[in-house]
Design goal:
Layout lengths: L2 H9 L26 E5 L7 H10 L7 E5 H6 L7 E5 L10 E3 L5 H15 L3
Parallel strand pairs: 1-2, 1-3, 3-4
Protein name: DNA polymerase III subunit psi
């Protein structure tokens, strides 16, 4: 499909399909991404260490694709999208909706709080 055909497909609200080889269909409509199970919001001008993100992804019971990392400005511009859980690092806004918030580098107390919250939320009963 050309990009125009793909736009028409979405405009007509035709169902998107899944393809085992998406590289063969570069302009095919992509299915809507589901909501993130975990959204990590990082303060403006900050970056989340790859090792921390890898540790969080390894510890949680779902695919890494369900973890979304966003800059605080992008998160605010997107009207604060919801997720199963929100984590915040170096926030400049009020952390009211966040499951946990803190700064980097993590202290031992912050690490315990963070892992405790994630375990409470994502462990199967």
């Amino acid at each position: 499909m050309t990009p125009l055909q793909s736009q028409l497909w979405h405009l007509l609200e035709l169902p998107a399909w899944r393809c085992a080889h998406p590289e063969r269909l570069p302009h095919a409509p992509r299915p809507e991404a589901g909501p993130a199970a975990l959204c990590i919001v990082v303060g403006q001008g900050r970056t989340l260490p790859e090792t921390l993100l890898a540790d969080i992804a390894r510890a949680l019971p779902f695919a890494e694709e369900r973890i979304r990392v966003m800059d605080e400005a992008a998160w605010l511009a997107a009207e604060q999208p919801v997720a199963g859980a929100l984590l915040g690092f170096h926030l400049t806004t009020a952390p009211g909706a966040f499951l946990w918030h803190g700064g980097l580098p993590l202290t031992a107390r912050h690490k315990r709080e963070l892992w405790s919250r994630l375990c409470q939320l994502f462990t199967a009963d």
